[in-house]
Every structure is written in C-alpha cells, then in structure tokens.
Amino acid sequence: MTATPALSRTDPPAPPRGRFVTFEGGEGAGKSSQIAHLAERLRGRRLDVVITREPGGSPGAECVRHVLLTGAAERFGPLAEACLFAAARADHVDRTIRPALSRGAWVLSDRFYDSSRVYQGDGGVAPDMLRLLEAVAVAEVRPDLTLLLDVPAEIGLARAGSRRGGGDADRFEKEDVAVHERRRRAFLDLAAREPHRFAVIDATATPTEVSEAIWRAVGNRLGLPAAPEAE
After folding, report:
1. Among 24, 79, 165, 173, whose CB has the most other CB atoms within 10 angstroms?
2. 144: which DSSP letter?
C-alpha cells in the first residue's frame, strides 16, 4: 500500500515591518498637532497608524510620565531622571512600538531617544551613559525618519504658554529661554550629524505649510502607497 504524501503547509507570509517616525523639537514646536495631521493623511492611504508619545505611550510609561513632568524626580538628579526616562522608554517599546511595527503599522511618536540626548545631556549626563541607557531601552527599534520641528525658543515658549492658558508650566517648560535655545541648537547638531535620518522642518511657517513640508519629507524618505481610488 502506497502511503499518501502529507499535504505541504506553508505559513502565511509575515506582514512587512511598519514605519517608525519620530517628531522632535523644543517646547511649542507644534509636534502634537502635526502628528495628528500626518496620521489623518496616512489613514487616508488606508494605512494602520499608531500615535504615541514620550514619556508615556504605554500604561507603565504613563505612570513614570507623571513623576517626570511634575518634577517629583528632579531632586534625585539628572542621572536618576535619565534612568527613569529609559525605564519608561523600554516599556513603551515593548508594549506599544515593537508590536505595532511587527503588524505593519506606521508609528508616529511625539519624542523618542533624541529628546533624552538633548534634555538629559544638557543636564549633565555623560553621552556614553545616555548611549548605554538608549541601547538597553530600545535595542533594534530605531526611527526610520525623525522630523525635527525647528522654532526659536522664544517663539516656542510663547506658543506653549498660550496653549496651556493659566495652567502651570511642566518640569521642562519652566526653564528660561537661554536653556531652551541651547537645547534647540543641540537638536540641530544631532540633525547635522545624522542627515540620513533627520528632516529639519521650519516650524515658524503656517501650520498648513509645516504640514505640507512634513508630507513631502515622509514621501521622499519613506515612500507612500498610492491614494485609493474614489469609490
């Protein structure tokens, strides 16, 4: 009796890895609103889009966000703050970013490790220590594109103050304009060192102009599927 050959099985192909786009810049640069605009346009191309933020973006990281932005951790010093940011980032990557990329989604994050390089680096944490914390927290998960929304510190702080109305400034907003301008320069230095990853966007333009500049940068750097035909 001839044995019946076993049916061959092939696993369905894994979905292509998604795209990871981070938004960086100083206070009042308009990151949140521009992320929302970009997400809407990407969804119009029938893409799965996840909007997230740092610190935060996952249940554990959101708890750490409260500690950091209220200034409760400030008394422990810059290194302790940097460790808390890294802990929040590790949870964010594990719980939100990596799973979304694995299923093929586009992830848009309001800040990522470049903010730690600038803010905690400005606070005195050694670059080698920041690189070590970064490597532990994110492993292979690196941005495909980083959009730096650049605006002079004085303009950005005025926008941030208008946005919060009568509310209190957070741990970082409360610092003086010279500190914020120094951080702006640090972001621009990062962009100059990694031009293959960064696109610098003039955030002093109108919101519509900024949105169009972002859309062009995303299309040029990452490519976009064709717009769906009208039904």
Report:
1. 24
2. S
Q: Give the model's pLDDT for residue 171.
A: 54
Give burial (CB, 10 Å; 0-12/13-18/19+) of 79.
middle
Cβ neighbour number for residue 175 with a 10 Å cutoff = 17
Cα–Cα distance, 160 to 127 (Å, whole number): 28
Angstrom CA distances, 125 to 6, 64, 88, 136, 172, stand at: 61, 19, 17, 16, 16
**8 Å CB contact between 31 and 23:** yes
Tens of pLDDT along 173-221?
667 889 999 999 999 999 999 999 999 999 999 999 999 999 999 999 9
Rounded CA separation 194/189 (Å): 9
Cβ burial of 158 (10 Å; 0-12, 13-18, 19+) is middle
- Measure the CA–CA gap between 161 and 169, rounded to whole angstroms: 8
Q: What is the DSSP letter of 147?
A: E
